[in-house]
Amino acid sequence: MEVVPLDSVEEVAALGADVVEAAVRPGGAVLGLATGSTPLPMYRELVRRHSAGLGPSYDGVRCFTLDEYVGLPPGHPESYRATIARELTDLLGIPADRVQGPSPEPEGLPGAGERYEEALVAAGGIDVQVLGIGSDGHLAFNEPGSSLASLTRLKTLTEETRRDNARFFGSIDEVPRHVLTQGLGTILRARHLLLLATGAGKAAALAAAVEGPVSASCPASVLQLHPHVTVLCDEAAGAGLA
Ligand code: F6R
């Protein structure tokens, strides 16, 4: 695992954008995309470079969103599919039919995880998976206690995560209780994992993930089992590291 402590959010965004761009080759690439606040500065940097004609061509790139809320009305702006389109893929000119997430429609819920896993395999697997970390150490929406071998499935959010995410909604009551999420085993199948962590609220979780024991009580500690992980953190998030 390479852990790169940086001074600022801007440096995390710039170096993260370098990592993503390096994976985008002329023949295309498969990108795994987290949502939440942390990757947004990096996504804006990728868009800035693309708009300035500086980035690679995104022709042939396919994207998979990491997780998705269950129970939001179709087209809800806080769905992860809508968020990724608005913040990144539409702006990079990646067509909507090349961006896929776990499908939260009620009628398709049984089997949604298996279909998403099959789509990942059919695409050839993920080249770079962008990840954030929850303040409780969650990775994607694998909350503490999740199996380290888990695959994409329906999960229930903890109250802590619903409180953390209430800022995207009118109130905590509007935050869905359920999600479809890549499992920890799914995440480990990507060829390169890029974990971004910024802000003091992530310091304890990041230290536990990187330097603590590998344990389901800190799901992000599963990263220690992967052969190619890059962790980019700002000074505040890295404050708990030895
Ligand atoms: C988002 C996701 C979550 C977030 C985590 C941190 O797709 O899977 O694990 O990465 O909750 O969220 P932020 O970045 O908003 O602090």
TrEMBL record:
Top-rank taxon: Bacteria
Keywords: Carbohydrate metabolism, Hydrolase
EC number: 3.5.99.6
PROSITE patterns: GLC_GALNAC_ISOMERASE
Protein name (Swiss-Prot/TrEMBL): Glucosamine-6-phosphate deaminase
InterPro entries registered for this protein in UniProt: Glc/Gal-6P_isomerase, Glucosamine6P_isomerase, Glucosamine6P_isomerase_CS, NagB/RpiA_transferase-like
Organism taxonomic ancestry: Bacteria, Bacillati, Actinomycetota, Actinomycetes, Propionibacteriales
GO CC, one annotated term: cytoplasm
Residue span(s) of domain Glucosamine/galactosamine-6-phosphate isomerase: 10-224
